[in-house]
Amino acid sequence: MLNLVFMGTPAFAVPVLESLAARHNVTLVVTQPDKPKGRGQQLASPPIKLKADELGIPVAQPASLKTPEFHDLIAAQKADLLVVVAFRILPATLFPLARLGAVNIHGSLLPKYRGAAPIQWAVVNGDAESGVTIFRLDAEVDHGEVLAQARTPIGPDETAGELFDRLSIMGRDLLLKTLDDLEAGTTVPREQDHTLASPAPKIHKEDGRIDWSLSAHAIHDRVRGFNPAPGCHTVEAGADGAPARTLRVHRTRVVADAPGSPESLAAPGVVEVEGGEALVTTGAGRLQLVEVQWEGKPRITGRDLVNGLRGAVLRFT
Fold first, then answer.
1. 64 DSSP assignment
2. Half-sphere CA count of 277, side-chain side, radius 13 A
3. Is cis: bond before 111, omega within 30 of 0?
4. Superfamily of domain 205-309
5. Which of 14, 22, 103, 183 is the most core-located residue (most Cβ within 10 A)?
6. Structure confidence by residue, pLDDT tens digits, 284-311
C-alpha cells in the first residue's frame, strides 16, 4: 500500500480518487478553490472536493501552489507519490517532496496532444484512436517519462464527452496497474519522442463557430469534438434588418449521397430539405442536422427545425 497525495479537480478525476482510496492510503486531496456558479453566484465546490468529503479524506484548496506553507503541507504527508489528474501545472519544487515523485494521467497517447484539451482535439482532428498515458511529471508540460499507455478506437460519431467518460475509466484502471508496478519496482520508464509532440491548446467559445466552407466531415468532427463544451454554433443569415439568430448544433451526421448524384448548386450554409431532414451544404458534401437548439429555446431535432421553417429558406453564415 502506497501513501498518496491526490491532486485533481473535475469529474474526470472522481473515479480515479475513489478507486485509489479503496486500495491505497490517500492522506490528502488537493483541488481548486470553490468558485461562484450559476445566477446566484454562490460558491460551489469542485467534484473532487465533494468526493473527498464523502470518503473522509482531508482537503486543501490553495490559491497558490508555490507558497512555503503549501510545500510544508505536502512535505508533512511523507507521501510515496503525488498523483495528479486534470489539475494545474505543478511547480517542479513539489516533485522531490514525495519518494517516487509525481505521476499524471493524460487523456492522449503522448507525445501527441500535449496541452489542456487532448481529448477534444483528437476528435476534432478526426483521429481513429485515442488513449491514456501515465507519465512522470517533470519541469515541462506533458514532457516526462512514459510509464504506461492504453489505446482505444474513437467511434465515427463519438463525441468528446463520450470519449472523456471512457478514458476516465481507462485511466483509472491503467493507473492502478501502474501503481502496482511502481510498488513492485517493475516499471520500465521510457522517454517520449519529443520530435512527435503536437499541441492541444485550450478551447474557446469562438472556436465552435461553424465555417460552412469546410467539408462535411471536418464540420462533423468539430461538432463531436466540441460536444459538450464549448459547443458548436452557427448564425442565421436573416433578411435585411432582421436580428441574427444563433443556432447551437449538438449532433450531426455526414450524408452519403448516392454515387453519381449531382452535387448541390447551393452555396455553403444553405439548409436543404430532403426526406423531411435538414441537410446543410458545405464546402464538400452535405451535413444532416440531427440535434440543434435555437438560442434560449429547448433542443429540437433536425426534423423539428425543418417543420418550423414552413417553406422558408434558411441559410447560415
1. -
2. 15
3. yes
4. Formyl transferase, C-terminal domain (3.10.25.10)
5. 103
6. 999 999 999 999 999 999 999 999 988 7
